[in-house]
Design brief:
Two copies of one chain form a homodimer. Chain A is built from 18 helices and 19 strands. By secondary structure, chain A is α/β, with parallel strands linked by helices. Chain A folds into three domains: 1-136, NAD(P)-binding Rossmann-like Domain (Rossmann fold), CATH 3.40.50.720; 157-298, 3-Layer(aba) Sandwich (Rossmann fold); 300-482, Succinyl-CoA synthetase domains (Rossmann fold). In chain A, the strands form four sheets. In chain A, strands 9-8-11-10-12-13-14 form a seven-stranded mixed beta sheet, sandwiched between helices. In chain A, strands 2-1-5-6-7 form a five-stranded parallel beta sheet, with helices on both faces. In chain A, strands 16-15-17-18-19 form a five-stranded parallel beta sheet, with helices on both faces. In chain A, helix 12 packs parallel to helix 18, helix 14 packs parallel to helix 16 (409-434) and helix 15 (390-401) runs antiparallel to helix 16 (409-434). At the A-B interface, helix 3, helix 6, helix 9, helix 12 and helix 15 of A face helix 3, helix 6, helix 9, helix 12 and helix 15 of B.
């Protein structure tokens, strides 16, 4: 048995070579875009454009058909019109191509004739032991190792631990842009399209086994086999956090989903129950799924729902307290010991409450001391910290506008920026030391020095709005409770 | 009667001169920041720093007290410590300063002693006919005419038609950053603080009369006089859209609000009823309030809840349909006439459904024709359009990476960018012609050429996520129904 047969995903995730069948010289065509994106993404294997009418595209020699390619092809990416797909699949089979991605639309989603062609295509592939992704899909991204950006939108996200399987290519696109905005990267991005052969459940299984993937996200319109989906979701969730955005929550959504991928979404209440049973986390939007991922890949899981809130502004604390309570988090009261301890740190008029409002506590170090009291306390399982970033904004403004050395504006500005950088580093250090999550939220969090590096190094989860931070924190709690559930069952067994 | 007495708001919104009492040379102090921001913001009146121990700050001559200022002072901004406030207010009164903003904290929110001082301060001001904003507030921004940025955070938002009154300075800050991110500007930003004298209701009344303000937003923790609040809200909502973010929805939020501004938030259900009765629109987050404002200042009101969705990607349409239905919007079915008309435009395999998925309809002009069919139809009151921006991304990439003229990449790229720009201009033109709202949503909407100018010219409301667009559309519908309610009552009367 060869390595390829042992792990069929190798051909999709780490192909040593890809053929682009239907490659085009015309920059307006998908067959150009796909080849262009693969080259632009710096794919590490060999690329073979296939087109009987061309000699050269984008500097690469073009082959008339698969038989003429002078090396084995691990993955064939098919950008041929529906009417021409059957002979090409035959050709793949004869030339021992074991994995194919059919990008083109106009199959099952376009009516009975397309559906019949889709079935025939799958049957031919099956007869050769070939597996298919698509049709009607955006393609695949496989960053780590392969650097394969074989998909339609010109997106080249950094490598990272988040894997995606999406029944919509457009929403795979949305996952990527939301990830880029918050600074996280991806391992695999799979747009499963019509799922003529390989289905969400198969990719879910593959991502659950994939060592480069730590968190799995999915956009789902419907499933063909509910029992199998439950089983595979349960298995995947037992290994890694699995977050689902499920469409078809309403009649309007159900209709639209059916017309989009022909998916029967089924009763939303049924799916809700299924997700609960399987240990999947349901997110309402793409952004929320990405936000929860950012927390999961960077923070330890909280051991309960009691959360401390430390804020650099009163109003932020008030709204965050509301959002926390509405999400089922417990904004626990401070113990009398903790109030006593904080009395030593904060000015006499501090608010003696969770959220602790640091508004007047400007003295250096107070913020970190306060955070540490929350982390030390058994009463709290994690912390939300609100408002970081403004010292840097203010500081940079002073530095930029300094008039003369006597004004001391540069010195004051530098001091503010430096202090914030220090606070930020200490927050991360504290989180690690106490193994409790700390999530940050601020309108200007992006301005904190070295935030981007820290996000890339996965030590920080930082959000531009209060509610996004609270929802992400809710995701951490949810995952913690799912893991507890799984462990509870293990203990019983 | 002088102009000032006729309109006391003149002193707050268009002061001809301001005194900064407690101005400081020390860049670490609020008394510096405030003066600095006023100068940086390009205030059009005269500025008089007051500090008995300084001669010059930031290039301006400093006055030992108000009496020495050689011109009338319209507005005094007070950055003096609580312990020193009473003689300063006396001084203001004696020197005929009729408007004051007390920035400093440490009054009513800090305990009984601060509360007593706050009362005394207000009584003194009242005896001189002086009105006070604050204490414990962030200050005021009054862009149009005055260019007065007399507030703490270094934010200088552009002038625009949105007015804000916020019981939290931090959340006024959040309103500004959210507005900047989406491209809208502000008329007045008022942080009302402890509301020792002037309250939210007073500012609400002022903004309702203010010709520069078209939409009013408020962050509210509590009100002192429920009946007055109802009355003023009703009055304001009768004139302009009024959007409220109300804190204290949960026990945790109520506690936090009380500790923040001493506000008794009261029962949330009661407020909900009050807002409904008064015709206020309640938003869940700061961002949502800003998003609704962006729609209100740029789009006509829809005459009903039936919405057409046109999408450049299937998945986006599916999720948007769900969000619409959950928000109470009606994703109405297409009439057979409209299906027939679209059959003439779209390829044979189009989805025959609302949302109309344009995925395969690449031919130039199809998108605009489709939009126009929705706008022409009595069946639909407005449109959501999803996915604009990707042609520009793709086009720019081609232009940037063009290898040689023979590749035709530059030509194709330019064509795509040009086409999107044309579509974008036509969308705006259509919206005007049919007087129906069109809201845009796309991950990359910011990339559309001339988007920023169009936002500034208030012809466009564009959102980076589907859900934000749907929530903003909901706000338009809500306002439309409120206006209808008011008009219905007028007719009866």
């Amino acid at each position: 048995m060869t390595q390829k047969e042992k792990n069929p995903w190798q051909n999709f995730f780490h192909p040593r070579s890809v053929a682009v069948v239907g490659a085009s010289r015309d920059p307006q065509k998908w067959g150009f875009t796909l080849l262009f994106n693969i080259l632009k993404g710096g794919y590490k294997g060999r690329v073979f454009p296939v087109n009987p009418r061309e000699k050269e595209i984008l500097g690469l020699p073009v082959y008339a058909n698969l038989a003429q390619i002078p090396a084995p092809v691990d993955l064939a990416i098919l950008v041929v019109p529906p009417a021409g797909i059957l002979p090409v699949i035959q050709d793949c089979g004869k030339n021992e191509v074991k994995a194919g991605i059919v990008i083109t639309a106009g199959f099952g989603e376009s009516g009975p004739r397309g559906k019949a062609r889709e079935r025939e295509m799958t049957a031919i592939a099956e007869s050769f032991g070939m597996r298919l992704m698509g049709p009607n899909c955006q393609g695949i991204v496989s960053t780590e190792g392969a650097s394969l950006y074989a998909h339609m939108p010109p997106q080249f996200p950094p490598s990272g631990p988040v894997g995606i399987v999406s029944q919509s290519g457009n929403l795979a696109t949305s996952f990527i842009t939301a990830g880029e905005a918050i600074g996280i990267g991806f391992s695999r991005i799979i747009s499963s399209g019509n799922e003529a052969d390989l289905q969400t459940t198969d990719f879910l299984e593959a991502l659950a086994e994939d060592p480069g993937t730590e968190v799995i996200l999915s956009y789902l319109e419907g499933v063909r086999d509910g029992r199998k989906f439950l089983e595979k979701t349960k298995e995947a969730s037992g290994k890694k956090p699995f977050i689902i955005v499920k469409a078809g929550q309403t009649e309007a959504g159900v209709k639209a989903a059916f017309s989009h991928t022909g998916a029967l979404s089924g009763s939303d209440a049924l799916f809700e129950a299924l997700f609960a049973q399987a240990g999947a986390i349901r997110a309402e939007t793409i952004e929320e799924a990405i936000d929860i991922s950012a927390a999961l890949i960077s923070q330890p899981l909280p051991k309960g729902r009691r959360v401390g809130v430390v804020t650099l502004g009163g109003g932020w604390g008030v709204l965050a307290a509301d959002y926390c309570a509405k999400a089922g988090l417990i904004v626990e009261d401070l113990s009398s010991e903790m109030i006593k301890a904080l009395n030593e740190v904060l000015p006499p008029w501090w608010n003696r409450l969770n959220p602790v409002d640091m508004v007047a506590g400007y003295r250096k170090g107070d913020l970190i001391t306060t955070l540490e009291l929350f982390l030390k306390s058994d009463r709290f399982h994690g912390v939300l910290m609100l408002g970081l970033g403004w010292r840097t904004v203010r500081g940079n403004l002073l530095i930029t506008d300094a008039r003369s050395p006597e004004d001391k504006m540069t010195a004051a500005g530098r001091d503010w920026v430096k202090e914030e950088k220090k606070i930020f580093a200490e927050v991360q250090e504290l989180g690690r030391r106490y193994a409790k999550p700390i999530l940050l939220a601020s309108d200007v969090i992006r301005n904190v020095p070295s935030l981007a590096e820290s996000v890339r190094a996965r030590r920080v989860a930082a959000y531009p709005t209060l509610r996004r931070a609270v929802k992400a924190y809710w995701g951490l709690v949810k995952r913690s409770e799912i893991v507890e559930g799984f462990e509870g069952k293990k203990e019983k067994a």
